[in-house]
Design brief:
1 helix, 71 residues
């Protein structure tokens, strides 16, 4: 039985929009990683809840406060 929710393409568009807005926080951001969708029934290690295919995880790594950055 499938779960209802936002289509994966729409979830991807929202995730990409959010990561696009992160550019204003440069040079503080070292890297970003986006994962859209998850096989149904997989348990996320962070929440212990099955997320399903209509979710997105956005990970942002910041530079260390004592690491020099350039604009």
């Amino acid at each position: 039985a499938g779960r209802n929710g936002t289509p994966i393409a729409a979830t991807d568009r929202v995730a990409q929009s959010i990561t696009g807005q992160l550019g204003r926080y440069q040079p503080a951001i070292q890297s970003t990683f986006v994962r859209v969708g998850e096989p149904e029934g997989v348990v996320n290690a962070n929440t212990e809840d099955p997320d399903g295919p209509n979710t997105a995880d956005i990970y942002v790594t910041l530079h260390s406060a004592d690491e020099p950055t350039t604009a």
